[in-house]
Amino acid sequence: MIYLSLAGIIFVAELFIKNYIEKNKKMNEEEEILGGKITLTRYHNKGAMLNFMEKNTKLVIFISGILLGNLLLLFGMVIPKKGNKVLKLALALLVGGAASNVFDRVNRGYVVDYFSFKWLKNVVFNIADLFIIVGSILTAICMFFRKEKL
């Protein structure tokens, strides 16, 4: 239950943050925080990662929905099993982040991205993206070292 709750918390928290950004930040307006290490900005990503396929948003929505559906199936298979705590955590991070971005794509027609790092200024992220990255890395590590089948 804790892993499902974590995914839900990620989804809801990100929804609040994105709504705040949409209401309170102008497009591409920059605000430096943490001594300039992070820049807050409002950006609409109509494509997949790094705006890939931005001209074909319906296909991006379809593929994202299929991937989220498969992720939810895997999550549902792993959660009831004993052990696999790191994999369960990884999948919770993935589900929460992916669900947030798919929700944006379906309801807004784009994903709200809102921060960049000083050392990677041209790439704008959201927190869901970070959860997807961390969840993906942890899942890959778990799969590499697994001893049993899912």
Automatic annotation (TrEMBL):
One of its GO terms (biological process) is proteolysis. It is an enzyme of class 3 (hydrolase). Pathway: Protein modification; lipoprotein biosynthesis (signal peptide cleavage). Keywords: Aspartyl protease, Cell membrane, Hydrolase, Membrane, Protease, Transmembrane, Transmembrane helix. One of its GO terms (cellular component) is plasma membrane. Its main location: membrane. Coiled coil: none annotated. It holds the Pfam family Peptidase_A8. The chain crosses the membrane at residues 59-79, 86-103, 123-145. InterPro entries: Peptidase_A8. Its EC number is 3.4.23.36. It is a multi-pass membrane protein. One of its GO terms (molecular function) is aspartic-type endopeptidase activity. The active site is at D113, D129. The keyword Hydrolase applies. It is found in: Cell membrane. It comes from the Bacteria. It catalyses: Release of signal peptides from bacterial membrane prolipoproteins. Hydrolyzes -Xaa-Yaa-Zaa-|-(S,diacylglyceryl)Cys-, in which Xaa is hydrophobic (preferably Leu), and Yaa (Ala or Ser) and Zaa (Gly or Ala) have small, neutral side chains. Belongs to the peptidase A8 family. This protein specifically catalyzes the removal of signal peptides from prolipoproteins. This is Lipoprotein signal peptidase.
